């Protein structure tokens, strides 16, 4: 039988400004370890520490532009585009442009503070 997820759980974010993270599927909201799905809204000027996660992260930008820095440079991912950050790659997310960004992030396996490995 399908499982209804009646609402997400709001998760505290890392970064320079408050960012809204609403987890629909993952460790917190559904006790799911295999995948996480979250709706993110980050303001203009937000940036988080770099990370080298133990999961693949698939991000679809719904509104605005998400900047993804990596060891070879950076990508600006606009509304209607997507990006994959691969397991073991260093990345750093930010929203430096006017209006910030809204996006959906899916992590395989699920996002965990223990496996994201943020820069200190």
Task: State the gist of this model.
By secondary structure, the chain is mainly β. It has one helix and nine strands, in the order βββββββββα.
How would you describe this structure to a colleague?
This protein has 120 residues and is mainly beta. It has a single domain (20-116), classed as Jelly Rolls (Sandwich). Helix content is 3%, strand content 47%. The protein has 1 helix and 9 strands, in the order E-E-E-E-E-E-E-E-E-H. The chain has one helix at residues 113-116; strands at residues 9-11, 20-25, 36-42, 46-47, 56-70, 73-78, 82-85, 91-95, 101-108. Strands 1, 2, 3, 4, 5, 6, 7, 8 and 9 form a 9-stranded antiparallel beta sheet that branches. Strand 1 and strand 2 form a beta hairpin. The model has no long low-confidence stretch (mean pLDDT 97).
